[in-house]
Design goal:
This protein is of the alpha+beta class and 150 residues long. It has a domain of 97 residues. 31% of the residues lie in helices and 31% in strands. It is built from 4 helices and 6 strands. Strands 1, 2, 3, 4, 5 and 6 form a 6-stranded mixed beta sheet that branches.
Length: 150
């Protein structure tokens, strides 16, 4: 039978230790509450990590800015123009359609001629908006822009 010199050394070392101190350490360990160790918070989901960049947040923030902005000009008509290649869209409604998509409804202003009703679905990163106030001749004709999100 082969001898194991390392195993023998470990056994000799173990035999020399104070068994009472080992027993006390084991008893302290057994009494420890597993829940007393603080656990790290759970990792956020992909949705939670990317919520701040969602179309819903964009529409919510735009709505809050719009409300505060229109209160500064009670006798004016707020106008939001979406600038897209080749046209401007006078926005009457803005809606979060998916995580990154915004749907705009309104009238497309293309060159000369009457505005035509339209709807545009656009990725929020491609959206450029110009907001301004027009002076109203008759304050009761003021139209508000709708903002919708879940």
């Amino acid at each position: 039978m082969d001898e194991n010199p390392i195993g023998e050394q470990i056994m000799k070392q173990f035999m020399r230790t104070d068994h009472d101190s080992v027993t006390k350490a084991l008893e302290r360990f057994a009494k420890m509450e597993m829940y007393s160790i603080p656990l790290p918070p759970p990792l956020p989901t992909a949705e939670e990590r990317n919520y701040f960049s969602s179309a819903q947040v964009l529409v919510e923030r735009m709505s809050r800015r719009y409300d505060g902005w229109t209160k500064e000009f009670p006798d004016g008509q707020p106008v939001i123009l979406a600038m897209v290649p080749g046209a401007l869209i006078q926005v009457s409604d803005m809606r979060a359609e998916s995580h990154n998509a915004v749907a705009l409804t309104g009238n497309v202003l293309m060159g000369e001629g009457d505005p035509k009703p339209c709807m545009l679905m656009v990725h929020q990163n491609s959206l450029q908006l110009l907001c301004y106030i027009e002076k109203l001749v008759e304050p009761e004709t003021r139209k508000l822009i709708g903002f919708h999100w879940d």
